[in-house]
Amino acid sequence: MTPPSVGRSGHSDHGGFPGRGLAKGLAVTLRTMTRRTVTAQYPDVQPDLPPRSRGVIALLEENCTVCMLCARECPDWCIYIDSHKETLPAVEPNARARTRNVLDRFAIDFSLCMYCGICIEVCPFDALFWSPEFEYAETDIHELTHERDRLREWMWTVPAPPALDASSEEPKEIAAARKSADKLVAAQAAAGRTDSSDVAPQAGTPLQADAATPAATATPADPATQPSGEEPAS
Ligand code: SF4
Ligand code: SF4
């Protein structure tokens, strides 16, 4: 019985011709040589990043109510928030004064951040966003703590959200804003009619203004559009 042939590497060359492995290797080399290069030419050419890339965290300060949820939930404790309370005078004679939180400091230490995105997920007021911007390396580690102004600047690099599905329900914020805008337009139109009724009508012109029209009465703003973060003074 003839023993199986053994190659130079010591492995048996079962069911093949001698030098089969060498031919396979050369074939891979040839195939790779004829392919287009995939080397990223960064920084000469910017990478085409997916829109949901986690580059840096941006802060929309106007939406932040200093609820501290993000700082509490951050597993690395790398969000620093300072604030103080401000008392707002009562808007009506018998109403109570109100207090609100005022942001003094909001900073994220990106040398500690692990880009988990928990802070963005838990923020109930949409004040934090991912930006795909990643070119913020520093030679001094202290510079990686971005204060509120720098975090606000990143907002300009946050990509627009993808369009809604055509059959989806209108977001409640947009529906509330549209409702308020419609009420305002109706109130302005009614006020315009009331003003014109003060002028003596021309002969043959029918009176159209009606001060008792519901749209002419002042309508309170929709609660959904009220600024958040205010609470009754204790
Ligand atoms: S991404 Fe994660 S680690 Fe970074 S600040 Fe937010 S919660 Fe903290
Ligand atoms: S969770 Fe949002 S609203 Fe609350 S402190 Fe953080 S960024 Fe501000």
Automatic annotation (TrEMBL):
It is a peripheral membrane protein. Residues 205-227 have a biased composition (Low complexity). It is an enzyme of class 7 (translocase). Residues 55-84, 104-133 form the 4Fe-4S ferredoxin-type domain. It is found in: Cell membrane. InterPro entries: 4Fe4S_Fe-S-bd, 4Fe4S_Fe_S_CS, NADH_quinone_OxRdtase_chainI. Residues 1-20, 185-234 are annotated as: Disordered. It comes from the Bacteria. [4Fe-4S] cluster 1 binds at residues 64, 67, 70, 123. Binds 2 [4Fe-4S] clusters per subunit. It catalyses: a quinone + NADH + 5 H(+)(in) = a quinol + NAD(+) + 4 H(+)(out). Its main location: membrane. Keywords: 4Fe-4S, Cell membrane, Iron, Iron-sulfur, Membrane, Metal-binding, NAD, Quinone, Repeat, Translocase, Ubiquinone. SUPFAM superfamilies: 4Fe-4S ferredoxins. NDH-1 shuttles electrons from NADH, via FMN and iron-sulfur (Fe-S) centers, to quinones in the respiratory chain. The immediate electron acceptor for the enzyme in this species is believed to be ubiquinone. Couples the redox reaction to proton translocation (for every two electrons transferred, four hydrogen ions are translocated across the cytoplasmic membrane), and thus conserves the redox energy in a proton gradient. Belongs to the complex I 23 kDa subunit family. NDH-1 is composed of 14 different subunits. Subunits NuoA, H, J, K, L, M, N constitute the membrane sector of the complex. This is NADH-quinone oxidoreductase subunit I. It comes from Streptacidiphilus alkalitolerans. The lineage of its organism: Bacteria, Bacillati, Actinomycetota, Actinomycetes, Kitasatosporales.
